[in-house]
Amino acid sequence: MNKSSIKIVVTGGAGFIGSALIRMIINNTEHKVLNIDKLTYAGHLESLESVADSNRYQFEEVDICNAEKIKRIFNEFGPNAIMHLAAESHVDRSIDGSAEFIKTNINGTHTLLEEARQYWQGLKGDRKENFRFLHVSTDEVYGELGDTGFFTEETPYDPRSPYSSSKASSDHLVRAWHHTYGLPVLITNCSNNYGPYQFPEKLIPVVILKALQGEKIPVYGTGENVRDWLYVDDHARALLKVVEEGTPGETYNIGGHNEKQNIEVVHTICDTLNELVPKEDGETYRNQISFVTDRPGHDFRYAIDASKIEKELGWIPDETFKTGINATIKWYLDNMDWVEAVTDKNYNLERLGIKA
Ligand code: NAD
Ligand code: DAU
User: Fold this and answer.
1) Alpha helix (H) ranges present in the chain?
2) Shortest-distance Cα residue to atom 14 of ligand 2
3) Do 356 and 296 contact (CB within 8 A), yes or no?
4) pLDDT of the chain along its 356 residues, tens only?
5) d(CA 74, CA 78)
6) Which of 14, 109, 281, 316 has CA 20 to 30 A from 233's CA?
7) Ligand 2 center to 94 CA (angstroms)
8) What is 7-198+230-257+299-320's CATH number?
9) Domain ranges of the chain
């Protein structure tokens, strides 16, 4: 692929990872980006303010399930690559209501694949040869691990929540479009991301904000579940590398080798806040921790073996958990206006994911 300047359609670019990806592409490359996003509760153009005026950035408010609009966009913009991140992404919401997950994650991916196939089949020469469709997926498709072991690209699929099974379905569709039609696809399966601009319903921003608001910090079950954390900008760099240098048909696992029990993550955040914004009464933020009803079907442990992308594409994370969590906490402290802007509509402070 000509890496100097290409046109990329990013789906879900107003979300947490998509906006980090677009900021990185606009700031660090000469590529042009067209962002397709439906602007659900999780999509916020406020996250893209720093690049919105670039003449290499465009936005279309479109649902990926709308085949007619997707066809028009592909034909008008003429992308060299599609980076597909749009999804319903929160496990707890998928437990409370799975319909949107099926629509967007499965039917939406199917619509994109079909439109990408037709568009790609109409290309000629190098443009056809070099076209790429990157599907951004999750380590949750592999199910859960016990106390030991890692997910590799060969680990059999065993999704266990409505969210992860909808993502697994979409991964299978993407592979089928490669195998059957030859569409040059790539799939990435990444571990838990954290960093700036994450909507405050996922563990790390929930803990930071509940702590600062003096509320109870909800830890599901015993807090012993393990997640493998990756700073979002490291994920964004990996995604661009896979699009530019990955081999079509291949899958790449992405992770930061940062396995932590949830309670360790919560303690780290509380202790960092104790230093950065000590409470007037001298109490520790740890006193706000509250162990609550567990997530139904809660996967015990995720851990990624990222050696394939490290060896084949030379990607390694820049951030350790310590540097990344410090940067994240400081970002939230400095950007409460963003938090207010994205939470004043449709923000549900109630506990999600216990209707099962
Ligand atoms: P997010 O929920 O923050 O953002 C999702 C974006 O998709 C939002 O901007 C939303 O408006 C948009 N969207 C939703 N439905 C749409 C539709 N029908 N049409 C167009 N746009 C739509 O999600 P995220 O955390 O940024 O995750 C992005 C992708 O990465 C997802 O595919 C997710 O499965 C995957 N992933 C996430 C993580 C993580 O830890 N957050 C880890 C691995 C993989
Ligand atoms: O592993 C990758 C996945 O990571 C992505 O595919 C998902 O899109 C992303 O949301 C994330 O899923 P998790 O379910 O692991 O993330 P979440 O932040 O919701 O939860 C992380 C862990 O913290 C999990 O074990 C549940 C627990 N938790 C979560 C919340 C929101 C709590 O203990 N308390 C909470 O309030």
Assistant:
1) 16-28, 67-77, 91-96, 99-101, 109-121, 125-130, 162-181, 203-212, 232-245, 262-276, 307-313, 321-334, 336-343
2) 91
3) yes
4) 667 899 999 999 999 999 999 999 999 999 999 999 999 999 999 999 999 999 999 999 999 999 999 999 999 999 999 999 999 999 999 999 999 999 999 999 999 999 999 999 999 999 999 999 999 999 999 999 999 999 999 999 999 999 999 999 999 999 999 999 999 999 999 999 999 999 999 999 999 999 999 999 999 999 999 999 999 999 999 999 999 999 999 999 999 999 999 999 999 999 999 999 999 999 999 999 999 999 999 999 999 999 999 999 999 999 999 999 999 999 999 999 999 999 975 565 577 888 76
5) 5
6) 109
7) 12
8) 3.40.50.720
9) 7-198+230-257+299-320
Residues in contact with 318: Cβ distance below 8 Å, sequence separation at least 6, in sequence order: 231, 233, 234, 237
Atom in ligand 2 nearest the alpha carbon of residue 167: 6
CA atoms within a 13 Å half-sphere pointing along the CA-CB vector of 330: 7
Would you say the CB of residue 268 lies under 6 angstroms from ligand 2?
Answer: no
Q: Which residues line ligand 1 (CB under 6 A)?
A: 11-12, 14-18, 37-40, 42-43, 63-65, 85-89, 104, 108, 136, 138, 167, 190, 192-193, 199
Measure 199 CA to ligand 2 centroid, in angstroms: 12
Question: How many Å lie between the centroid of ligand 1 and the Cα of residue 37?
Answer: 10
The whole-model pTM stands at 0.98
Active-site positions? 139-140, 163
